[in-house]
């Protein structure tokens, strides 16, 4: 008998934590072993169907989320046609709140596992392998001759029983790896499903630290904690943070979702001391409109929150991602502009502008008629319009979102944007007008090379009546050189100073200077060094010569640049 657990991820670089926990725990307690098959939403449905069929599963289980539910249903339906004897079961947050309706609408499905799945899935595999009755598996919805039936949800799972989810091959894959040290959330945000699980549970700290050491030993590039509010228990968070700082390997980055207003002086003082790039924080602000914040049941002291975010930013050692949600109650275009500008001026490394998803089971789904929320009927149930945000204005925010991703969050235009912003009323107005220009010109209909995005910015700036000056040109070169050697730059972005000749550079790289400016390159021939670095003179904002080192980059991919006396 063959049991296969399927994950269909949003991106290739992602790994599915849920299927690894399900399979890992089941394989610990059952003789019947579960295999994992992993794909992305970019794979053709035909290819996924073919690959699954070749593995000849008798029990086929899909991990189901917003981003893959339609694809999962298409594949499951066709799989049942070519393999009618295979038992097909779905699980995951996207199917946990309407399992009965799902089975009635899709008769090719044999069952749905609801809620936390480790214990239920292991029990399902055990009973299935013994040809036993499924009807007493906890949290299971299924169809029998009398119709659709559901069993009560299982008790909350003991996180200390979770196995370490990754093997050696996965640890060395270069992909983003996910980890969970707690479940549940103490807050009640009305747009979120995590608020439904009020009982916050923690994995024992010594077990967590042992798991984290395996990531550190493997020098994994990035580990993302999926804990909904990582710092809701200070002792738990500090034990993990202090361990990671003490055992830092100089490579691995750890990402946490935080409630910043829970950080106290001790925590902030400690965070100011950690290595640059060790930690990355995601902080949900969502809106700065007090009426909106009240409607979504957040308890936020905005001045205090902003003060803490600035404190985190001040040492320059922690990347912050700040989140906004468009389409919330009482937030129209004008209100969202204020929220956007408030967050922009906090200077996050990424400003993540998302659109409300009216999730089944959430408070806003329950109150959708009360607030007049109009949203897409199919996953991801994204907002279309509200009484405060008509669809035409939502489209404007879509354009802003696109420009923020291209020009702000990419990190490739930071020096150029700094100057351009001076000629606009606000950051929001800059991105709004840029988005309108971008779409009016039809640039959104085609892909563009990296250098073309600089030219589009130049065209937008000049059509707005502004004059391109030497400083802006040099900022363009600077932004580009932070990311790659100058193989391809726009024709208009020429250097305004005579650049060092090759002979000058070779003479500059004496052993003493290599040790001072390029540690790690000691003993290398200067001609070889020049193949790996770039040196350029700039006149703006002040005369200087920069050495770009491309083997050392920050989390936004920017090369290490140092000023040299040349």
TrEMBL record:
Domain B12-binding as annotated: residue spans: 1-135
SUPFAM superfamilies: Cobalamin (vitamin B12)-binding domain, Radical SAM enzymes
InterPro entries: BchE-like, Cobalamin-bd, Cobalamin-bd_sf, DUF4080, Elp3/MiaA/NifB-like_rSAM, Methyltransferase_Class_B, rSAM, rSAM_horseshoe
Keywords: Iron, Iron-sulfur, Metal-binding, S-adenosyl-L-methionine
Domain Radical SAM core, residue spans: 171-408
SMART domains: Elp3
Xref: Pfam families: B12-binding, DUF4080, Radical_SAM
GO molecular function, a single term: cobalamin binding
PROSITE patterns listed in its UniProt record: B12_BINDING (PS51332), RADICAL_SAM (PS51918)
GO cellular component, one term: cytosol
Cofactor(s) the protein requires to work: [4Fe-4S] cluster
Name the UniProt record assigns to this protein: Coproporphyrinogen III oxidase
Organism of provenance: uncultured Anaerotruncus sp
């Amino acid at each position: 008998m063959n049991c296969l657990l399927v994950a269909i991820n949003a991106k290739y670089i992602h790994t599915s934590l849920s299927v690894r926990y399900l399979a890992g725990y089941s394989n610990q307690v059952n003789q019947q072993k579960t295999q994992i098959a992993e794909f992305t939403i970019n794979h053709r449905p035909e290819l996924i169907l073919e690959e699954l069929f070749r593995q000849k599963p008798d029990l086929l289980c899909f991990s189901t989320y917003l981003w893959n539910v339609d694809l999962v249903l298409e594949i499951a339906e066709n799989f049942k046609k070519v393999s009618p004897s295979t038992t097909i079961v779905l699980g995951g947050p996207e199917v946990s709140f309407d399992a009965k309706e799902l089975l009635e609408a899709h008769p090719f499905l044999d069952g749905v596992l609801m809620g936390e799945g480790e214990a239920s899935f292991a029990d399902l595999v055990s009973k299935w392998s013994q040809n036993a009755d499924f009807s007493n598996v906890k949290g299971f919805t299924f169809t029998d001759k009398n119709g659709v039936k559901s069993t009560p949800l299982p008790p909350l799972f003991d996180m200390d029983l979770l196995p370490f989810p990754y093997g050696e091959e996965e640890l060395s894959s270069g992909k983003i790896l996910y980890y969970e040290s707690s479940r549940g959330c103490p807050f009640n945000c009305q747009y979120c499903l995590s608020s439904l699980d009020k009982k916050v549970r923690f994995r024992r700290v010594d077990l967590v630290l042992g798991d984290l050491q395996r990531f550190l030993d493997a020098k994994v590039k990035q580990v993302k904690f999926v804990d909904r509010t990582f710092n809701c228990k200070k002792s738990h968070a500090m034990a993990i943070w202090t361990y990671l700082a003490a055992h830092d390997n100089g490579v691995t980055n750890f990402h946490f979702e935080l409630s910043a207003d829970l950080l106290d002086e001790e925590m902030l003082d400690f965070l100011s001391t950690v290595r640059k790039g060790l930690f990355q924080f995601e902080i949900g602000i969502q809106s700065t409109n007090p009426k909106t914040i009240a409607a979504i049941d957040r308890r936020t002291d905005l001045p205090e929150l902003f003060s803490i975010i600035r404190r985190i930013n001040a040492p320059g050692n922690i990347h912050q991602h700040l989140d906004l949600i468009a389409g919330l109650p009482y937030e129209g275009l004008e209100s969202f502009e204020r929220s956007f500008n408030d967050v922009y001026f906090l200077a996050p490394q990424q400003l993540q502008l998302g659109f409300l998803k009216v999730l089944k089971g959430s408070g806003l789904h329950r109150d959708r008629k009360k607030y007049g929320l109009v949203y897409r009927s199919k996953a991801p149930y994204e907002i279309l319009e509200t009484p405060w945000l008509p669809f035409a204005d939502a489209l404007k925010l879509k354009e802003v979102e696109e420009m923020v991703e291209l020009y702000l969050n990419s990190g490739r235009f930071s020096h150029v944007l700094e100057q351009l912003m001076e000629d606009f009323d606000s950051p929001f107005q800059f991105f709004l007008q840029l988005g309108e220009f971008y779409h009016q010109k039809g640039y959104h209909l085609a892909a563009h090379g990296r250098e073309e995005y600089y030219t589009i910015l130049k065209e937008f700036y000049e059509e707005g009546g502004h004059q391109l000056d030497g400083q802006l040109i040099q900022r363009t070169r600077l932004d580009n050189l932070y990311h790659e050697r100058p193989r391809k730059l726009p024709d208009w972005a020429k250097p305004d100073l005579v650049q060092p000749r090759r002979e000058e550079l070779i003479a500059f790289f004496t052993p003493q200077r290599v040790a001072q400016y390029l540690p790690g390159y000691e003993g290398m021939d200067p001609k070889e060094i020049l193949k790996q670095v770039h040196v350029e003179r700039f006149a703006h904002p002040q005369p200087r010569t920069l050495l770009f080192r491309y083997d050392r980059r920050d989390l936004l991919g920017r090369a290490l640049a140092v000023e040299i006396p040349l």
